[in-house]
Amino acid sequence: MGTTLIVGASQAGVQIAATMRELGDTDPIILVGEEPHRPYQRPPLSKKWLKSELVPGDVILRTREWFDSQNIELISGDRVVTIHRGTQGPGEATTQGGRRLRFDRLALATGSSVRRLTIPGTDFHGVHYLRDAEDAFALEAALHDPANRRVVVIGGGFIGLEIAAVARSMDKEVTVLEAAPRLVGRVVSEQTSAFYLAAHQRRGTAVVLGAELRRIIGGVADAAGRRSRVVAVELADGTAVPADLVVIGIGVIARTELAVQLGLAVEGGILVDEHALASDGRTVAAGDCTVMPNPYALGIPGPTRIESVNNALEQAKIAAASLLGERLTYRSVPWFWSDQADLKLQIAGLSTGYDQVVVRGRPEDERFAVLYYRSGQLIAADCINQPAEFLAIRGALGKGHTISPEAAADTDIPLKQSITEPLLATAEAP
Q1: CA distance linking residue 21 with residue 200, whole number of Å
Q2: H/E segment holding residue 357
Q3: Which DSSP string corresponds to 306-371?
Q4: Whole-number Å distance between alpha carbons of 319 and 292
Q5: For residues 161 and 197, what is the distance between their CA atoms, to the nearest angstrom?
Q6: CA 313 vs CA 11, 247, 283: distances in Å
Q7: Which of 111, 110, 116, 144 is nearest to 128 (CA)?
Q8: How many Cα atoms occupy the beta-carbon half-sphere of 75 within 13 Å?
Q9: Per the CB 3.0–4.6 Å rule, which of 30, 101, 217, 415 could disulfide with 232?
Q10: What is the pLDDT of the chain when averaged over all its residues?
Q11: What pLDDT is attached to residue 223?
Q12: Per the confidence metrics, is the pTM higher than 0.85?
């Protein structure tokens, strides 16, 4: 079938290559990643990595020997800048380093980039983002610098809260500035948001909700003309929050430049179908860069963008099959996790469109679950320090089963014993 070019040495990109080999493909595969490192896991970068509890080998996805044994050409430290492909036949990609790569099959696993904050002062020394390994190296060093006592985190989503928890564990003075009226408001219920607000405050983190930023303030540049160092973050009301270190975590943006160049449909991400096929019917895409039909049977139909390792892996497997001419349908229960100090949040399903919430357990004990319902059917859950309940709920959702709200609220009954098949919404006529 010819050479496969995979653009993006991400978790999705590596999985596409691995699955193609597992499915028996022996033709050449070229995997191109713009970072100089071998492909690695990103989630640990905002957690154990910042505490210097990991070394690079701990996060590497596959060894060099594995790529060699699988006859996969890994090109690191180079970026694909142009792709030319006609309506049929092979195509050619050009890299920033001048490589010309011919291909017969194409996969885009370009991932996402950090959303940049557009206020004055983001270029001061001491202002950080966290997306890739180089960002993580720099932020790790900054957090371990004893001169950086006061840390301001801009953004109260998962990444921001994970970084805040790490900084507090290092005895830093931490302030989280969140523009929205609650933490992680795009993803979780008011009950879960309120718990995380109280939990971070109990651990000594100051949180400002509804924070409207004006600028980042820097000190006077030194005699050598080097960048001014950050000293504070100024809010719209004139409040200046002192800072030796500022970390910005306000989300990510799907990388779609090459898809646009190819004329593929793009709407906040590369539009793909349930087979991971882009609008041209032959290019595949997987991971954070995509917008797809909701893969979750209990979710609301329509275009969905899911940023998670699980989604990247499962969608990549479907993409690999499509490249080999096999049309599998992506159907999976999305799941996510976030480690914040000693709080482990595990989410199963998608709560979009819920109309009822049941809190199982006592949030003040820091071991509880929030179950989401739509029309009486369980559709998702947030589990905090409840791994067994998370597994039970994820298993139930995967089978289309449910747990009644009444049973979910009764902590005397093990959750796995309360799982039932849902009642039919309408009975068939006799």
Answers
A1: 45
A2: strand 356-362
A3: --SHHHHHHHHHHHHHHHTT---------EEEEEETTEEEEEEE--TT--EEEEEEEGGGTEEEEE
A4: 12
A5: 10
A6: 7, 28, 18
A7: 116
A8: 20
A9: 217
A10: 94
A11: 53
A12: yes
